[in-house]
Amino acid sequence: MCIQLEAKSIFFLFIFSQACNSNGITYVPLYDTLGANAVEFIINHAEISLVFVQDNKIPAILSCLPNCSSNLKTIVSFGNISESQKKEAMEHGVDCFSWEEFASMGNLEDELPAKHKNDICTIMYTSGTTGEPKGVILSNAAFMSEVLSMHQLLVETDKPGTEEDTYFSFLPLAHIFDQIIETYCIYSGASIGFWQAVRYSYLYSILLLCNMCHQSNKILTIFRINLQDIRYLIEDLLVLKPTIFCGVPRVYDRIYTGIMAKILAGGIVKKALFDFAYNYKLRNLEKGIQQDKSAPLLDKLVFDKIKQGFGGRVRLMLSGAAPLPKHVEEFLRVTCCTVLSQGYGLTESCGGCFTSIANVYSMIGTVGVPMTTIEARLESVPEMGYDALSSVPRGEICLRGNTLFSGYHKREDLTKDVLVNGWFHTGDIGEWQADGAMKIIDRKKNIFKLSQGEYVAVENIESAYSRCPLVTAIWVYGNSFDSFLVAVVVPDRMAIEEWAAKNNESGDYISFCDNPNVRKYVLDELNSEAKNNKLRGFEMLKAVHLEPVPFDFERDLITPTFKLKRQQLLKYYKDCIDKLYAEAKASKK
Fold it and tell me: What is the mean pLDDT of residues 45-74?
């Protein structure tokens, strides 16, 4: 296990995963956003024996030892480790080493062990459930099938990776998307540049670690936080000048916002020239003209500065983890002078299982077609009104193929729930397009993903907020195009009226629900309750609408058993939700 914050650690993380792959050792990448108890749970659940940790996170690991030292036997720090920390670990029968101490214990004489395609490559824990994290088992065969499928796709539709290519890795190394891309770069001979372009020589350390891990026969797990800070992204792009760039919608949205701000600041004349060039090239792309032939002169005269902002050499941009807003995708396709492909996948599918085809503009707004190692079908969901056999097929996306996971670690019950007759039920609702592309339109379960890729179990969150004495009912909303949550709240009438009287607010209950001061008070109290219940930052509310009329049957907002009808709530409060998001975004500026 490896917890890291500093750029130096990224190299070590990469070393560890490759060392494990070389020795046929299972490693377990981990996000700290899984929750406060996730480290302890996963060490025990995956029976972790060897942990790699950033030095400033050692106290967090030591605090877990009383409950997990039966499995954990060795801790290795990237930096220094104090004698007192070593002593504390030894009291629980756990050895501690600095990186230098541990590396010096290896040797280069042992032969690497045999590896088999059906062996477990990695167990990746995911938070996409309301309960404990699930360990997704991925075999060597599934992992390499995904890598080779990506290669075949690029051979057939664009240009495969070569030694001339450079990939910029800034996504979390615990993310299956980044791991697949990095492995593909190794396969194709491409270079990999890491976050902040820190330069270290590490080949010798890889060899030492390979042998050390082989001798100890340990399971290694990697723990890396989710980097969301992109302040240094542009700086790194200018230094590295990559040819392959992979991002998530939140990153692309920030880039889009920044570029548009500069365009608007350039004055009316420059904005008019930009709009002319933009619309001209867009029309040509819509006609099916390839990216490099749609407006080559305008690319040089107008869009070259945007291209240079990515280093000037990017030839392939990829987007995944959440839906990319259509206006952002269109903007990137027009202005970045490169092809862009949006994909869809899950940890359970070993990353991408759908992808839009390069230079096929009609696939904009979709996640494209199934990759070559995957079969896909839609299954009707009548309770949500989705019919897979209608003129416009809609239903739950089900997958079958070589890149699927082998099951959930030690959770046969959960495995049986989602793997039925060889088909993996994703829980995502898709709509087949006329050209064979898939469009994601809904989520079957009440779990959704925000734009930065974080999963939100909305019922659990609503349960926590409902403990606030100001609330009689609450509906929390979020989507994959935004990074935060908003809510519609039915407040307690007496509590609101008492607060208004104490704070000299005039009016009645209905007017109080429209009062900005009352709304702020309720929002602050809700987020205070969230902190008391240890909700994470992305689970906090950014804006609320106060509804004086309780959710009722007459408006079809609740079921006979008083459960929320989420689709009906969204339909009924659509204008309120749009207003809340607009207010929250405006307050950030």
Answer: 84
